[in-house]
Inverse folding.
């Protein structure tokens, strides 16, 4: 058919109006939940911290010393040198998160575990590990079973005898010294490992000594300047050393980012200068409900005096128990399913079963804990152990699923290389697969732990008390937890004062803990994804 | 080298060396633990629930008060003190929460999924996805508190006769909570749609809107559907938000009537928490009623999860 | 092949007196060396008899029979999909890892059929090292990469010395001797592949299998690897799969030509294959008429 085929003047135009409207609708929908939550968070933070109750001079002082300098330096760096900007932010973030973590650890040593008991167990563990290594080194030709039994005997003996022996000594060093050795030394070894990997073995010794000296400052110099040695040692070991180590290591590798230090200095310096200034000028800060008293006192019938201390301690203990139970079991199951399991019906059944367990409501897990641990095994209700065990069962499917993903992301060429060298399955898993998958497994476990410490229903089901006045000190003590305390305030003590004061404060503390756990996990994941 | 030595060397079985056996058995036991957990849940819930019902209690050798199955399933009153165990009010409240949260989360979740999979730049995705994860990471008790203290008063300015505890704000927070679940599973399904289909659409002169709505969404329908079921099963099992926000008064309501959302009610999960917050003795009828509701809840969510799994398998097979 | 390294393969549970073991092997080795002579045409180390391989119902190799001589480089060439890599992976039973793969026929390593039921593939792989197509060092330090085989096999001896010697034999020592603690992944592609070769030779295997070891490398790195392979043949039996005919011609003593369908068309001295092949199909393939 002969149509006229001249030159084309124009292709015409297809309307995009509907598409553009649609696009913005979608964006609005995406942002809806995020914005709603942000608004709610602002409200609750306002109720808990009450920034408007502060003296205007207080705001002005901090505006001048902290906010404006930070904005100025931050904006400059962000435009000219984004890498340094991120580095500076990372230092401050690391310091904040690790200080919080150090607070939790310090709480453990002040109220839950005697430093000397901790020291004794660390010593016992070191002796046990040392014994096992010596046996392995001494004679590899001994049959495995002989070595296994010998190692078992050494581990048992040191774990059973050493702690008792150490704690019954008539005289032992001060708590600060004990913690320097038992908390500082392991951290020094970790630092040394990183330094050895980055800078060679020669610098390792220097790094280990430097770490011990810094931590020792808390123990020896702390008392002289009027700081309690236990918290000082812990903060130095768990917050200052890791942050400093991170900053120094990064600068050695990327000296061009040292401008980031300036940003960190402006933020930290501004905080200190601001605090000194408002004190000197007599400006009152906000009458925040989240204050030292709230963090360190127990529940009270009046909202203004109620505190979260036992619940924080309970959450920490629960987290430790849950991690200790769910990590090995979850990773073990994931390793079996990814590395061993033949493709048969049992495997497929386990597979389907795990994804279904992930969808079982948390109250049902609570019932499981109640029925199995309390009614059938006769444990008393509401203890750390059964609370931890119930929450561990609850997050186990999540840990397994995320650990499987991490294992699956280990390239097959690594396994091939190892099997090609004549490694057995376990050798391949231990030496190649697990180390490579570890960051991913850790990320998934942290996220799952975050889920566990936000759970309330299972704890109610197993009979955890709504009100607890002292920290749990053993696995068999009754336990409370932050969300449980918040629930108790919001329901059993439901009244305006609690809604206005204690509950928002509890919510803010809980969310800060959870959001920092989430951000640690996300940072880890991003770093690990960009590494691969 | 003689063949004998070689044979001896090559035929050492490392596979069954003690450390291999030990580690393999440990890993296997870890995997089997999941089956043990499921079995324990099923056995525990069914035996305890059996002790609750008049029909089965004699078989379990239980004496004392029991409840009839018919009364449990058709009764319209839930009053523990009167030993009136009619589950319908609880089910109606759970259903109301489910429908209410679905109205919030399904459209928003799917829209989010389309935006993330088709429109968002990689940078926007890397910011939005963690932010959405936070929505799911906030503890549910906190959502309950938000509903009572901030959302209800705000809604009261629009709807003056809204109760202090009501299903409306409970549904809204549960809906917000499950948006990320709908979004992430639907987005997975949309990402699984092969690019060649999109290319074919653009090649025909379709706009991005045409491609997203006309090609990607229909192609990923089974995935979207699977995300709906899973998210709703999460809403049904959701406990603390509704316990705090929906009140503690059992109340038979019509989930399809918008007016019934203005008052409070007692969903199944909240009823379980309330039972335990009150003082109940192990082995009593109230204690056993807990397991009867638990069993109902477990069966509903299990069936929904399985359906969602089957539907999801379909979309995985398609591409 | 040093004697003290020979004594301990997979010997976790061995309670035998090491001295007598050692002496027994020492005699065996000297006999075997005197019988063959290292440089002239060696005795067969690997002998395949009627090997067939299936992946599910697809036959990947048909009735392969050949003998691989000691201390020489044997090349396997052929178009892609001809089964040359499959055959290589039969020798150390890496095919066991693929569920769908099924091997029939006999494949002897120094007279022992490696597909006998009583053979442990793990023990076999400790005697037959392998270098893969793309470099796959572990995300560990250079030292730990090379010492990996020694550690998993619980070998005795001075690891520092063995690591140094292996890196020297892999022509990598001078480049990395100051950075043994840094990650193997920080090396360039060619260095990584030489690291993988050092890793393969450190436990002193009898045979080294190489699956297109230079295909992912640039020409300079490739020529280094080729020089290295020729040197390795003084001490090891090397079997190399390559798709590059010039490479086979440059470095191998013997060449096996596989053609589509998984059949071994011709196996002979490399010179003969490239200058005067018996088979017309091989000549067509070599001259590029058919690929």
């Amino acid at each position: 058919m002969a149509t006229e085929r001249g030159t084309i003047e124009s292709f015409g135009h297809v309307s995009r109006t509907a598409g553009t409207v649609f696009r913005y609708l979608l964006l609005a929908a995406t942002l809806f939940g995020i914005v709603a939550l942000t608004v709610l968070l602002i409200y609750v933070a306002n109720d808990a911290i009450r920034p408007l109750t502060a003296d205007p001079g207080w705001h002005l002082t901090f505006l001048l010393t902290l906010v404006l300098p930070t904005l100025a330096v931050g904006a400059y760096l962000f435009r000219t040198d984004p890498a340094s900007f991120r580095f500076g932010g990372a230092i401050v973030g690391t310091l904040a998160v690790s200080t919080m973590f150090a607070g939790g650890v310090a709480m453990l040593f002040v109220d839950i575990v005697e430093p000397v008991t901790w020291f004794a167990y660390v010593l016992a563990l070191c002796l046990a590990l040392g014994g096992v290594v010596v046996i392995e080194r001494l004679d590899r030709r001994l049959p495995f079973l002989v070595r296994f039994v010998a190692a078992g005997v050494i581990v048992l003996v040191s774990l059973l005898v050493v702690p008792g022996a150490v704690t019954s000594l008539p005289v032992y060093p001060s708590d600060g010294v004990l913690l320097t050795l038992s908390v500082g030394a392991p951290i020094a070894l970790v630092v040394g490992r990183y330094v050895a990997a980055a800078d060679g073995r020669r610098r390792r010794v220097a790094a280990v000594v430097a770490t011990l000296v810094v931590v020792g400052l808390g123990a020896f110099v702390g008392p002289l300047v009027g700081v309690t040695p236990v918290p000082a040692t812990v903060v130095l070991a768990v917050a200052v050393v890791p942050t400093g180590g991170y900053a120094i290591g990064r600068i050695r590798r990327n000296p061009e980012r040292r401008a980031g230090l300036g940003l960190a200095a402006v933020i930290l310096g501004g905080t200190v200068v601001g605090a000194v200034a408002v004190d000197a000028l007599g400006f009152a800060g906000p009458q925040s409900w989240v204050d030292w008293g709230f963090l360190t006192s127990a529940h009270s019938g009046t909202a203004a005096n109620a505190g979260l201390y036992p619940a924080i301690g309970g959450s920490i203990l629960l987290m430790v128990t849950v991690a200790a139970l769910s990590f090995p079991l979850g990773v073990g199951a994931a390793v079996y399913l990814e590395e061993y399991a033949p493709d048969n019906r049992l495997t497929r059944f386990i597979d389907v079963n795990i994804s279904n367990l992930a969808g079982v409501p948390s109250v049902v897990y609570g019932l499981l804990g109640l029925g199995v641990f309390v009614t059938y095994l006769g444990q008393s209700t509401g203890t750390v152990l059964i609370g931890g065990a119930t929450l561990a069962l609850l997050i186990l499917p999540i840990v397994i699923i995320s650990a499987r993903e991490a294992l699956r992301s280990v390239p097959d060429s690594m396994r091939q290389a190892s099997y090609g060298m004549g490694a057995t399955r376990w050798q391949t898993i231990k030496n190649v697969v697990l180390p490579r998958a570890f960051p991913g497994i850790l990320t998934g476990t942290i996220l799952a732990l975050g889920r566990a410490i936000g759970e309330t229903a299972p704890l109610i089901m197993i009979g955890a008390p709504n009100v607890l006045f002292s920290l749990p000190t053993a696995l068999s003590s009754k336990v409370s937890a932050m969300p449980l305390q918040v629930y108790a305030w919001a329901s059993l003590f439901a009244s305006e004062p609690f809604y206005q004061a204690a509950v928002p404060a509890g919510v803010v503390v809980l969310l800060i803990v959870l959001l920092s756990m989430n951000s640690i996990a996300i940072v880890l994941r991003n770093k690990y994804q960009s590494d691969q | 080298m003689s063949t004998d030595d070689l044979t001896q060397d090559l035929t050492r079985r490392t596979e069954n060396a003690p450390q291999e056996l030990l580690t393999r058995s440990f890993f296997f036991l870890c995997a089997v633990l999941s089956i043990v957990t499921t079995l324990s849940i099923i056995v525990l819930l069914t035996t305890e629930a059996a002790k609750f019902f008049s029909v089965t209690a004699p078989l379990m050798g239980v004496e004392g008060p029991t409840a009839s199955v018919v009364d449990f399933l058709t009764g319209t009153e839930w009053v523990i003190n009167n030993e009136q165990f009619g589950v319908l009010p609880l089910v109606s409240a759970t259903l109301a929460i489910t429908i209410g949260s679905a109205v919030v989360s399904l459209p928003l979740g799917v829209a989010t999924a389309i935006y993330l999979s088709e429109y968002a730049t990689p940078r926007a995705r890397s910011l939005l996805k963690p932010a959405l994860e936070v929505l799911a990471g906030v503890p549910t008790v906190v959502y309950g508190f938000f509903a009572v203290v901030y959302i209800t008063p705000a809604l009261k300015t629009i709807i003056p006769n809204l109760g202090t505890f009501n299903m409306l704000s409970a549904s809204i927070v549960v809906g917000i909570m499950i948006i990320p679940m709908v979004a992430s599973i639907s987005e997975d399904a949309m990402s699984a749609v092969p690019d060649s289909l999109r290319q074919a659409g653009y090649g025909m002169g379709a706009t991005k809107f045409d491609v997203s709505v006309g090609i990607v969404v229909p192609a990923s329908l089974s995935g979207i559907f699977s995300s709906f079921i899973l998210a709703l099963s999460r809403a049904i099992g959701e406990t603390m938000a509704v316990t705090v926000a929906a009140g503690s008064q059992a109340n038979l309501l019509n989930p399809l009537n918008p007016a019934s959302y203005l008052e409070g009610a007692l969903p199944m999960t909240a009823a379980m928490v309330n039972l335990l917050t009150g003082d109940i003795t192990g082995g009593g009828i109230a204690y056993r009623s807990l397991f009867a509701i638990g069993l109902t809840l477990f069966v509903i969510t299990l069936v929904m999860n399985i359906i969602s799994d089957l539907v999801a398998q379909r979309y995985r097979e398609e591409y | 092949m040093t004697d003290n390294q020979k004594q301990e393969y997979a010997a976790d549970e061995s309670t035998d007196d090491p001295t007598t073991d050692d002496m027994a092997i020492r005699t065996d080795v000297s006999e075997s060396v005197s019988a063959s002579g290292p440089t002239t045409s060696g005795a067969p180390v690997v002998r395949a008899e009627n090997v067939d391989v299936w992946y599910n119902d697809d036959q990947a190799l048909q009735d392969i029979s050949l003998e691989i001589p000691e201390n020489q480089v044997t090349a396997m060439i052929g178009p892609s999909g001809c089964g040359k890599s499959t055959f290589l992976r039969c020798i150390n039973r890496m095919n066991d890892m693929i569920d769908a793969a099924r091997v029939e026929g006999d494949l002897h390593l120094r007279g022992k059929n490696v597909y006998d039921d009583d053979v442990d593939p793990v023990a076999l792989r400790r005697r037959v090292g392998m270098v893969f197509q793309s470099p796959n060092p572990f995300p560990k330090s250079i030292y730990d990469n090379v010492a990996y085989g020694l550690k998993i096999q619980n070998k005795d001896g001075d690891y520092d010395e063995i690591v140094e010697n292996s890196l020297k034999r892999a022509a990598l020592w001078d480049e990395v001797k100051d950075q043994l603690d840094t990650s193997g992944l920080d090396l360039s592609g060619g260095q990584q592949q030489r690291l993988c070769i050092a890793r393969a030779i450190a436990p002193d295997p009898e045979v080294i299998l190489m699956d297109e070891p230079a295909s992912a490398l640039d020409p300079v790195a490739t020529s280094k690897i080729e020089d290295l392979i020729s040197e390795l043949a003084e001490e090891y039996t090397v079997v190399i799969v390559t798709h590059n005919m010039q490479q086979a011609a440059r470095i191998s003593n013997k060449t096996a030509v596989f053609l589509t369908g998984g059949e071994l068309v011709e196996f002979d001295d490399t010179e003969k294959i490239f200058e005067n092949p018996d088979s017309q199909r091989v000549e067509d393939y070599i001259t590029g008429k058919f690929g």
